[in-house]
Structure formats: C-alpha cells, structure tokens
Design brief:
This protein is an alpha+beta fold. About 25% of the residues lie in helices and about 35% in strands. The chain has a 4-stranded antiparallel beta sheet with strand order 2-3-1-4.
C-alpha cells in the first residue's frame, strides 16, 4: 500500500506546543527533515517549514535510522550532504 507523504524541512521552533505537534504528526528523518502525511494546515501554526517534495511511497513504519534516511534520499532525490 502506498502513502502520499511530504518531505518537509522544519526551521527550529522554541514553541513547545508546536514541537509536540510536529513529533506527534510527523516522522523525523534526519537533521531538519521530517515526513508528513496530510495537509499542511493540519500542523500547528507555530511550525515554520517548507515542503521539499511530495511522493507516493510504500509503508515506511518499520524503517528507522539509516534505512529511513536512505529511502528518503532515494525517493525524494536528496543529496546526502543535506541530510546531515
């Protein structure tokens, strides 16, 4: 099954509510990059981010760490230097 996800680049926030919203609704990939399923308006207004890309991908819930990072770099065509 494929999921439509957005790769977002999040600028640091001091807003604790925004940070909790981000952690509850997104999957951290590396550095400032997160995967998000849904519409941008669903994220807290205190989260400053830009959408890097949107792709349909197969389930990624069992991936973590370097495997998740590698999948994101391949699917979204992101250079390793941006992923920290």
């Amino acid at each position: 099954m494929e999921f439509l996800v957005k790769l977002i680049d999040v600028q640091e926030t001091e807003n604790e509510g925004a940070r909790q919203d981000l952690q509850s609704n997104c999957t951290h990939v590396a550095a400032s990059f997160w995967l998000f399923e849904g519409e941008e308006y669903a994220l807290n207004d205190g989260i400053n981010f830009s959408v890097v890309g949107e792709q349909a991908i197969e389930g990624y819930g069992d991936l973590s760490g370097s495997k998740l990072k590698k999948m994101v770099m391949e699917v979204f065509n992101i250079d390793k230097c941006f992923m920290g």
